[in-house]
Amino acid sequence: MPELPEVESARVGLHQVTKNKLIHDIEIYWPNLIATELSVDEWHNTLINQTIHQVSRRGKYLVFELDTHVLVSHLRMEGKYFYYPSEDIPEEKAKHTHVIFKFKDETELHYHDVRKFGRFELVQYADVDQFFQEKKLGPEPTGEEFDLDAFSVALSKKSRVIKTVLLSQELVVGLGNIYVDEVLFDSGIYPERLANSLTESEVTTLRENIIRTIEQATELGGSTIRTYKNTLGESGRYQNYIQVYGKEGQPCPNCGTTIEKIKVHGRGTHFCPFCQPKEKD
DNA sequence: TTTAATGTTCATGA
DNA sequence: TTCATGAACATTAA
C-alpha cells in the first residue's frame, strides 16, 4: 500500500492502536523480512519486553519508537498491518501474515504482505539520523521543509528524466508511481523530460503540486487501488480524484485527448500527450 | 502463458 | 561519478 499518504494513514492507525503496548512475543514466519545485521533471534530478543511509545514516520518508512531502539518498517509494495483486539484474534493466521506481534494485553498486530517485499530494521536511538541519511532521503513534501530554491538547484544538476528523479526519494520523499504520474500531469510536464530542462516556473508549479497532492491524498486516507486497506480495515478515498494513473485509453479530464501509457524507469507511466508535451515551444 | 503490479536496492556497462 | 537498464525479492490476477 505504499506511497506517503497510505503510509501516513497506516501510521495514524498504528499509533492509536499500539501506543503504550508492551511487546510480549513476536512470531516470525518469513525471516527474510528482517533486514538487519543482527540475527533474527537477536532482533526478536531485543524487541521483547519493549514498549511502543509512539509510531512516527520518515518518508515511506514507519518508525515504532521503543525503549532503547526504533523498529523501522517499510511496506514496499503490499505490506499492511491488521490489529486485533483480544476477543477478535483469528483462529488461524491469514496465508500472507508473516509476522505477528503479541502484546502483553493479549491484543495482536499482524503484518501481512503478499509479495514479501516489505522490510523490518532495528536501529538504536543514537543511530537513527545516520540510518536515514544513508537512505539518502530528501525533505518531507511540506511547505515548511520542501525548499523551492534547494529543489530547483538540485534539479538543475540532474540529467535524468524527471519521473525517475522524483521516484528516487532523493530530492523529496513520498511520491510513488501513482502520485508521481498525477503530479506531473497537474504540472503539465512530460514524464521523460530531463530534470535539468524544467523552467523556473515549472519547478515552482511542480513543487506546489507535490505538496498539495500529498496533503489532499493524506487527508482522504490515501488511495485504495488494488488491495490497500489501512490498519483499521478502512479504504482510502483519494482514488476518486485520480486523473491519469490507470486511465490509459480514457479522455484527459482537461482536454479530452486520450491518455497514453508508456514505460519509464521500468514503471507504467500515464500521461496526456496534449497537456504534457514532450517538447516545449 | 505472459505480463504487470502504490518499492527499494544491487550489479553491470556505457 | 553519473546514469540507464535489468534483475532480484515473491505472489497473484488479468
Describe the structure.
With 281 residues, the chain is of the alpha+beta class. It has 7 helices and 10 strands. It has helices at residues 4-18, 40-47, 128-134, 148-156, 162-167, 177-187, 200-219, and strands at residues 23-28, 54-58, 61-65, 69-74, 80-84, 97-103, 108-112, 119-124, 260-264, 267-271. Strands 1-6-7-5 form a 4-stranded antiparallel β-sheet, covered by helices on one side. It has a 4-stranded antiparallel β-sheet with strand order 2-3-4-8, sandwiched between helices. The protein has a two-stranded antiparallel ribbon with strand order 9-10. A hairpin with a 4-residue loop joins strand 6 (97-103) and strand 7 (108-112). The longest helix is centred in the C-terminal third of the chain and has 20 residues, at 200-219. The structure holds a DNA duplex (14 and 14 nucleotides).
What proportion of the residues is helical, as a percent range? 25-40%
Computed structural class:
alpha+beta
Q: How much beta, percentage-wise?
A: 15-25%
Form type:
globular
Following the backbone from N to C, one meets helices and strands in this order, namely HEHEEEEEEEHHHHHEE
In this structure, how is the largest beta sheet organized? Answer: 4 strands, antiparallel
Number of helices: 7
- Strand order in the largest sheet: 1-6-7-5
Termini gap = 38 Å
Average pLDDT over all residues: 93
The number of strands is 10
Low-pLDDT residue intervals, each spanning 5 or more residues: none
